[in-house]
Amino acid sequence: MAMRNDMQPLDDGRLRTRLRESRPAPDLPPGFQNAVWCRIEQAEAATANVSLEEWLDRAVAWLLRPRLALAGVAAMLLVGFSIGALQSGSLANDMAKQQYLAAVSPRTAH
Known about the structure:
Elements: E1 2-3, E2 9-10, H1 12-22, H2 32-48, H3 52-63, H4 66-104
Antiparallel strand pairs: 1-2
């Protein structure tokens, strides 16, 4: 409960009423709520009907930011080096098998 200057308790209902009266809210223009809902529906429709070309444009614009572009290049290099290391290991393994077969049985290696 709040206390007034004359130290008498003021009930919450009256206090809320006085606070609302002290800061009156302006009236909304006619059709405001309908206009808001129309804008929300238009925004949802715009995001729902994004074509592949628009999606690619947005993705490219997002990736062309300097920090993201650097992170993308670093990620692509890491993936490329990883794939290269895996393939070179496989190639070295195949070459070792062929050399072993050639050393053990020279006729079947060709």
